Amino acid sequence: MESQLAELNAKLEQSARELLDLNAFKSRSQSENAELARQLEEAEGNVTQLTRMKQNLGKQLDEAKAALEEESRMRAKMAAENRNLQV
């Protein structure tokens, strides 16, 4: 009986150590998960911000293209008028 009791106490101590190890692992995993969730949220915020910036830059590019086309039309018109005046 004493040897069985000693064996059971050893198993109990081993189980207690394993439980402590598992709880420590769980705690580390939860901390890591929280950090990864924070990083993901930050990355998603950056993506949103970059998407907005891309849209704004696209609009600015379109406006610049339109202004360039208008300027080109005006120059062509002026050049034609200039040629007509010289004739």
What does this structure look like?
- With 87 residues, this protein is an all-alpha fold.
- The protein has one domain (1-87).
- 98% of the residues lie in helices and 0% in strands.
- It has one helix spanning 2-86.
- It is rod-shaped, with a radius of gyration of 37 Å.
- The relative contact order is 0.04.
Properties at a glance:
1 helix; 87 residues; mainly alpha
Mean pLDDT: 96
Helix content: over 70%
Number of strand elements: 0
Residue stretches low in confidence (pLDDT < 50, at least 5 long) are none
* Gross geometry: rod-shaped
Structural class: mainly alpha
Domain count: the total is 1
Radius of gyration over alpha carbons? 37 Å
Order of helix and strand elements from N to C terminus: H
Strand content: under 5%
Q: Number of helical runs?
A: 1
End-to-end span in angstroms?
126 Å
Largest sheet: none
Quick structural summary:
The chain has one helix at 2-86. 98% of the residues lie in helices and 0% in strands. It has one helix and no strands.
Helices and strands in order, then pairings?
Blueprint lengths: L1 H85 L1
